[in-house]
Specification:
The complex is a heterodimer of chains A (390) and B (306). Chain A has 390 residues and is α/β, with parallel strands linked by helices. Chain A has helices at 3-14, 17-44, 60-73, 91-99, 113-126, 145-169, 191-221, 224-228, 235-264, 274-297, 301-317, 330-338, 340-351, 363-389; strands at 48-54, 83-88, 105-109, 135-141, 177-183. Chain B is elongated, with a radius of gyration of 23 Å. The model of chain B has no long low-confidence stretch (mean pLDDT 92). Classes of the chains: A alpha/beta (390), B alpha/beta (306). Bound molecules: adenosine-5'-diphosphate and magnesium ion. Adenosine-5'-diphosphate binds at residues 15, 18, 20, 38, 40-46 of chain B.
Chain lengths: 390, 306
């Protein structure tokens, strides 16, 4: 291996001002814009749905809790309520709704709520607050965004019970503890994580579509390649240098983006799950294959950029990088289904536990790998043909 | 005697209908500066690139360092230095990084600083290659060609487009290469350059070799003669008359008339009398010795520069 060659190719790429912008700065900007837009859309009309399993009786405690639920779910002067309450009959039903994401939280008022509430009322009056506090359980999906936000708000609301109780009975209050329980192994959704995956893939793709393709075509059209191969330099050293350079650029772009997103948008560590990382690497390989293909087919950097853009935009937007693309019109559906980016994005997000993918599991790697082999095959055919022309 | 380091036999390369290189054969001897002189499109670059191993010939045979080969192999590439007609370098690399990169391609190479010194680029060694002037870029290209201390150096039009000072710098480099015993294969379309630097000049036109000789040899073959040049409007009868003087036709370049002569004083005298008698004013009268341009003109009927 010729490491000086690798170093030269790497320096040449990293010193390109456009590279600095498109690979390192632009992804950060794009992530910021996407997160800001989608976070605002979330808070403008903030609204949660809570499943409630009411096992309480007709005692004081349950009555107060029900009145509060009525209060927060009532629509006032055209404003939508903060919560919708969806009564459920069994705990299983409540948990199922939660898992299916039909509700943000599932609130359970246990059977012993009223007796305990009365007990503590009694004890606090006569012997102080030694008795066991009555509990309300809030089940949430894995501590994250919408669900945990709903839990927090509900906790605030339930502590209002104290205030209500005090007003009605003129007593010092029994404290109601709210226990948040996490329902494990269910899908959760974080907008920032979702967008992070999209932007990482975008940046990887642009490394191949624009970085690699532009390098190869520049080398060809400016006769640099010709000059180099008038020496005993080896083609494999050139490709090795290009590949490592693209991988390094992707790694740098990924690291910067991850650090930024984790500090600013508190994204999770899920991208580092081995299953997800494999798809991240596969995305790099796919991008390199497209770069080799564009570089071999096009004669000049301008043509490579034009052809690259022609493919890049539909591939990124109809690959589900920034919004889900399942169930779009049949006119674009075929493109979505052959687009390797669709599978890479779906694969990573599924592995991260963000969104379940509608595709059969093996398709997530098969479709990109088929593209990779076809493109690399074509690239070598074209390189050969061009080589003979020269 | 002189040993042929490169032998080319019946080399052919056609691009569709263009006969870029049309069955040429020649030898280059060790230690000489061998120049291929010809106008744009003569086939110089194509010939060079075939020998350098960048292009494939349609037909022909090459012996390099006494070894017959269809393509130049890696071992031969270790011993040659190449400077292409287009001097392009990997973008965003500094001068010394560019030379170090080329050094890495060879098993043996000279120290980078030594080569930088040889082409006088010391002050620019930390500059980016794309920021260099034309002459400096050309010197960098030569530095890259010399980094492996080659026995044989190809320089394809190293002075095209350079100002006179930059051109003289390159000439100095070529002369010192010769002093070091290197074999230099040069191409140019400047006849002064070919005349000044070359041990032998191969004149190429339309892919064919017109003549090969030393610069003096070429000129000697034109015979002992001079050229009387002047400008004036000429009628067909005038031309016919002047053509009859020496049994050799005059050459016309727009207003300029070139009268080849073996009898300089006799012809000058006759020309003056003729002009006087016809009341023609001869402008810009000039007498000069023949050069390679005349050789080219003589053989092809055209000038080197179109
Ligand atoms: N790749 C090519 N395809 C088609 N024609 C070419 C190609 N390269 C050179 N030619 C033609 O071959 C002839 C010789 O070109 P070249 O060797 O570059 O001449 P020179 O170097 O003497 O100027 C020219 O007519 C040129 O147009
Ligand atoms: Mg040329």
């Amino acid at each position: 291996m010729n490491l000086v060659f690798l170093k030269s190719i790497f320096l040449s790429s990293i010193r390109e001002s456009e590279v600095m912008f498109w690979f390192f700065l632009f992804p950060v900007l794009l992530l910021t814009i996407l997160c800001v837009i989608f976070t605002n859309m979330g808070t403008e009309g903030i609204h949660f749905t809570a499943a409630v399993l009411d096992q309480g009786g007709n005692g004081v405690g349950s009555t107060i809790v029900r009145q509060i639920f009525d209060e927060i779910s009532a629509e006032k002067e055209g404003h939508t309520s903060l919560f919708s309450i969806l009564p459920v009959k069994t705990r299983e039903e409540g948990e199922r709704f939660l898992k299916e994401q039909r509700v943000h939280i599932f609130i359970e008022i246990p059977e012993d709520f009223d007796p305990k509430f009365s007990q503590i009322l009694f004890f606090s009056r006569f012997v102080g607050t030694k008795a066991q506090a009555p509990s309300i359980f809030i089940h949430q999906v894995k501590v994250r965004d919408a669900s945990s936000l709903a839990t927090e708000i509900m906790k605030q609301i339930l502590t209002m019970i104290n205030g209500e109780a005090a007003k009605r009975m003129g007593v010092t209050l029994p404290s109601v503890t709210v226990e948040a329980k996490t329902v494990g192994a269910v899908q959760t959704f974080s907008m920032a994580d979702f967008m992070f995956v999209g932007v990482v893939l975008m940046s990887f793709l642009s490394a191949g579509f624009f970085g690699l393709a532009s390098d190869i075509t520049t080398y060809k059209s400016e006769h640099i390649y010709k000059r180099i191969f008038a020496t005993p330099a080896r083609t494999r050293d050139f490709f090795f240098g290009e590949l490592i350079t693209i991988l390094c650029m992707c790694a740098i772009s990924f690291t910067l983006l991850y650090l930024y997103a984790s500090v600013v948008f508190h994204i999770s560590l899920d991208i580092f799950k081995p299953g997800a990382l494999i798809y991240v690497l596969l995305a790099c390989v796919t991008s390199i294959a497209f770069g080799l293909f564009l570089g071999s087919v096009c004669k000049t950097p301008n043509r490579a950029a034009a052809f690259g853009n022609f493919l890049f935009f539909p591939m990124q937007f109809l690959g589900g990088l920034y919004f889900p693309v399942f169930n779009l019109s049949p006119w674009v559906d075929w493109f979505i289904k052959i687009n390797p980016v669709t599978y890479l994005a779906a694969g990573i997000r599924q592995e991260m536990g963000l969104l379940s993918s509608p595709f059969k599991p093996y398709l997530h790697y098969t479709v990109p790998l088929v593209w990779v082999s076809v493109l690399i095959g074509l690239a070598f055919l074209f390189f050969r043909r061009r080589g003979e022309e020269a | 005697m002189s040993e042929a380091i490169l032998e080319v036999k019946n080399l052919k390369k056609y691009f569709q209908t263009v006969k870029a290189v049309d069955d040429i054969s020649f030898n280059v001897n060790r230690g000489e500066v061998y120049t291929m002189l010809g106008p744009n499109g003569a086939g110089k670059t194509t010939t060079l690139e075939i020998i350098e191993g960048i292009r494939k010939a349609d037909e022909g045979e090459i012996s390099f360092f006494g070894k017959r080969m269809k393509y130049v192999d890696r071992k031969t590439k270790e011993k040659i230095g190449v400077s292409l007609q287009t001097t392009a370098f990997i973008p965003h690399l500094k001068v010394k990084e560019t030379i170090a990169l080329f050094a890495s391609f060879f098993q043996k190479s000279l120290p980078v600083d030594e080569v930088i010194g040889f082409v006088s680029l010391e002050e620019k060694k930390n500059a980016y290659a794309e920021k260099l002037s034309g002459g400096q870029r050309q010197r960098l290209a030569i530095a890259c060609a010399l980094i492996n201390d080659p026995e044989f150096v190809f320089l394809d039009e190293p002075t095209t487009g350079l100002d006179p000072q930059a051109r003289r710098n390159i000439w100095d480099i070529i002369e010192s290469l010769k002093l070091r015993g290197k074999t230099v294969f040069l191409t140019t379309h400047y006849m002064e350059e070919a005349q000044k630097l070359s041990d032998r000049v191969c004149i190429l036109d339309h892919g064919k070799i017109v003549a090969i000789d030393t610069p003096e040899g070429h000129i000697m073959k034109l015979g002992e003669r001079n050229f009387i040049e002047f400008s004036c409007p000429m009628s067909p009868e005038d031309i016919a008359e002047l053509n009859s003087w020496n049994g050799e036709p005059i050459k016309m370049e727009e207003e300029k008339v070139i009268l080849p002569t073996k009898d300089l004083y006799g012809n000058l005298d006759r020309l003056m009398k003729w002009a006087n008698q016809k009341s023609i004013i001869l402008n810009d009268i000039n007498i000069r010795r023949p050069n390679l341009e005349d050789v080219f003109l003589d053989k092809t009927g055209r000038r080197l520069r179109d």
